[in-house]
Amino acid sequence: MLRRAIGFVRWSIIRTLLALALVSFYLWFSVVSYVFLYQSIVPPVQHVAPVHFEFDTHCDAAVCSFPKATIPLERDGMSVLAKNQLYDIKVNLEVPESSPNLDLGMFMVNLTFFDQHDNDQWSSARSAILRYRSPMLTTLRLLFYILPMLLGFLEESQWVLVTFADSFTDTLAEGYKYAEVVVGTKQLQVYSAHLVLDAQFSGVRYLMFYWPLTSAVVYMSTVMWFLCAITALIVIQVVGLRLPLSLPMPAIIPGIGGADDDDEDGDGVIGEAGGGRPRVADQLGGGAGGRPGNVLIGQAVDEVQPEEIGAVHRPSDDDESDGRESATDSEEDDDSGAGAGAEGAAAGDDITGAGNDADNEDDDDDDD
């Protein structure tokens, strides 16, 4: 019993460690796969590229051409625009509130996308203008922000936002190579400019970006459940593990325990033909003439040692000689019993005859 208990505890510890190792591996695999899935599905929500304008000065005027800038749309050989993704395309211009800009009025801004072969594939043009402020409002604003302006935290400038597309999609197989921005005036003064690409997520990308924790938990739980189910199926099919659906019925192994057709007197000995061999159940702890309970499959059978089974099925020469002597004694007892029976029957006949003679004498006396 102690050895079986130690073996059971050892096997339980091994199974627990294996289960923990599998769960840890499945958790690690779920986290890594979710990270790769997120990076492959969800693109950056915003791409901002600086715009550096260039113009020609080889003329009598200060600016001989429209300011123009080229912005690359690739990073590390990959397009910054994801496939089948909607984008808002904007150009932000930071311009000073100077007199030339305020007197300029409206002006045009053009944006063109080029492919890998320097062919223009998409183009858009929008108008823009600085926001108007009255002289009184300008004076009051200057007085209110005089200290931050003196310290350099604020400047007399404003941002001009130019929106070129609300739902732009990259449909080229090779992607776009670069973009070109052209301001349609020579008098505009610009502090800085940026090209902004804002992604509009929907569906799975929307859930993974705006609900990252919930999406991660649902994904990792699903993956771990699927892996555990596959592991259980493999264990059932390959290892041979069977989960009991109900309590098993006791099964009797022929020749081990229980009532036997040859054991008519119930003394634990199988007939005379068996040479007086004791049953296996008696050898496993039953007393002489006892009737131990039936041996169940998977329980008492495991306790039967091979040498004990061999002793049952392979009797020794001494046992065979003892069996033959027992058979001879039984035959002699039968002969003596038969002789005693014959003598008893003869004595009975004599007694019966004497009784009949006595009756006949009584009848003669009555007649006299």
The stretches of 5 or more residues where confidence is low (pLDDT under 50) are: 243-247, 256-314, 361-368
Number of contiguous helices: 10
Query: What general form does the structure show?
Result: elongated
Largest sheet: 4 strands, antiparallel
Strand proportion, as a percent range, falls in 15-25%
Helix content: 40-55%
How many DSSP E strands?
A: 10
User: Within the largest sheet, what's the order of strands?
Assistant: 1-10-5-8
- Our Rg estimate from Cα atoms comes to 54 Å
Class from helix and strand fractions: alpha+beta
Question: What topology emerges from the helices and strands here?
Answer:
Elements: H1 2-41, E1 46-50, E2 68-72, E3 74-75, E4 78-79, E5 86-96, H2 99-104, E6 107-114, E7 120-128, H3 135-144, H4 146-151, E8 157-169, E9 178-183, E10 192-200, H5 204-210, H6 212-239, H7 280-283, H8 300-303, H9 306-313, H10 317-367
Antiparallel strand pairs: 1-10, 2-9, 3-4, 5-8, 5-10, 6-7, 6-9
Helix pairs in contact: 1-6, 5-6
